[in-house]
Amino acid sequence: MPVAGKIMDFLSCSILFVGVDAAWQVHLETLLQARGLRVKSVADGRSAFAGFDEDLPDLLVVPARLPDMPATQLCQRLRLNAATRGIPVVVLLPEANSRQEAEILERGADCCFSMADNPLLLVFRICALLREYDEDLAGREGVVFRQPRIVIMTAPGGVLWAWSDRQKPADFEPIRGGQPYLVELLQQNGEDALLVEDPEKLDLSGIASSRACPDCVVVDLACPAFDGLALARTIAAFRRRSRQCTRIMGMVEHGGLSGEQVARAFHAGIDDLLDADTPVDLLVSRIGSLVRRKTLQDEARREEAHIESARARMALADALRRVNADLAAANRKLIEAQAKLVQSAKMASLGELAAGIAHEFNNPLAFVLAHENTVKRSMVKALHAVRSQDLVTAETALQKGSERLSASLIGLSRMRDLVASLRRFSRLEEGEFRRLDVPEAIGMVLTLLAPKLGQDIEVTCKLEAPPELVCQAALVNQVVMNIVSNAADAILDKRRETIQSADPTLSHADRILITSFLEQAESGKGEEYVIQISDTGPGVPKELQERVFEPFFTTKPVGSGTGLGLATAYGVVQAHGGNVVVTNASTLGGACFTLRVPYRAGEERRGDNVA
């Protein structure tokens, strides 16, 4: 069967042989290990279940009859637990028997194989089952196996203790000894059975004993050492409080199943009641029935919890999507509001500078208009001189007109530069992050402020930081312009006070110093782009340094300021993740504004254009 060999590559799969004949096991191990499968073996079903707590196999191979239980019983117990429910089981038959095979398959086995058949066919069936089992592994994640836990509540002198002595076969060999026969029998069947003689030592939660909560508690209702009905009521009360599905079975004396006793047992919370004449097989089967019912309820609750958890996660995800959408909408509105505020403050700044800008336009315009007539007269004079062949006069007139045109061109160039600066300054995309040529942008701002600065305020720039910075254009267009404009106002106010006081000791060397440099961030991660603007004005009093960035706060006279310039500047710097502070300049004596923003040079958020 060479074709089968191509699909038999399950290097991570393990196969557990349970009670298989030694000769057959050796032969099958050789075939399976040759295909990369790992093989383990145990002697009986009880040993197999005991090992499931630590390691679950991927497939079981068992004979029809194990030393301690039939294969059908092993299959039924596997199917009761979520961790072992999907494990494939292959049952080995000594010879082909269709009736026996049908019965075994109906009781939970996945495959029956006759030892008389070709072993390679068995290997093929095993690999096919492993392939199907492997596809279902994701659904079993987080599910662990544990043996059913049964607690037997009785003591010497009780009916359950006496029942154990009476039912115990003469050839019975106990595992530990000193325990009732029922406890020993359940332990041999692979159950986690525990004898508790004192109700005070009953750990229903499983915390003290490091075990799981009991699946079933068998209570001796005729034990003289404790009140069985009171104990049943205690267990039932715990079951209600903890929402556990623990089952309670009660045993009474022979002939004690009266109507009154049944009623008391029902009201005490007991789920099944039997007397001391119950045969061993029936008692074990009824305990198994209670455990099976409890296991199914646990499974149903787990499934319901998973469903509720999934619903909760879906609801949380939906709520998170809505919150994210709301935050995105709020962020868009905030950006739009910031852009509008910056634009409004910008227009206010232009309005404040309107008179100076008009003067800047009027001077070169008047100069050009005045020279226009001069150039016209020179051209007429040169034309007449050429007609009269007076070349010296013609050359002199043309030279004079050329000089006037050159002078007019200087004025027109000044107007052109001013218009270009105004166009760049009035752009609306102030909120976009892009590469900005900082020296060029500062030069544009100083061009617009030139009428206000005049000839008496010297502006010095020492820009040592890299010229390009990824930021909003408003960082320079609005922030630097507002600060320099305020510095000019402060210097002019100080100058007027100086003139009024007529104090000759006061200096009139008014300056504004703009510097830029890179500085290590306080967090130690990355660098900060720092712009400092100092002036020789009166400075800002310490008690007002915290308030100058408040909206509508201004120290200017009524009608001279809106109180929004520095507030807008503060908002722009905050949008960059930076900060701006004001102190008194140590060198020039006036105010010193320090702007710090994260240095971004090699990254961009939107576009490559230089603002």
Automatic annotation (TrEMBL):
InterPro entries: CheY-like_superfamily, HATPase_C_sf, HATPase_dom, His_kinase_dom, HisK_dim/P_dom, HisK_dim/P_sf, Sig_transdc_His_kin-like_C, Sig_transdc_resp-reg_receiver
Gene3D superfamilies per record: 1.10.287.130, 3.40.50.2300, Histidine kinase-like ATPase, C-terminal domain
Keywords: Coiled coil, Phosphoprotein
SUPFAM superfamilies in the cross-refs: ATPase domain of HSP90 chaperone/DNA topoisomerase II/histidine kinase (SSF55874), CheY-like (SSF52172), Homodimeric domain of signal transducing histidine kinase (SSF47384)
Domain Histidine kinase: 356-601
MF (Gene Ontology): phosphorelay sensor kinase activity
Any one Pfam family match given in the protein's UniProt record, by short name: HATPase_c
Keyword flag Coiled coil: yes
Coiled coil (residue ranges): 293-340
Known EC number: 2.7.13.3
Alphabetized PROSITE patterns for the sequence: HIS_KIN (PS50109), RESPONSE_REGULATORY (PS50110)
Record's catalysed reaction(s): ATP + protein L-histidine = ADP + protein N-phospho-L-histidine
Response regulatory domain sequence ranges: 14-130
Full protein name: histidine kinase
Annotated organism of origin: Acetobacter oryzoeni
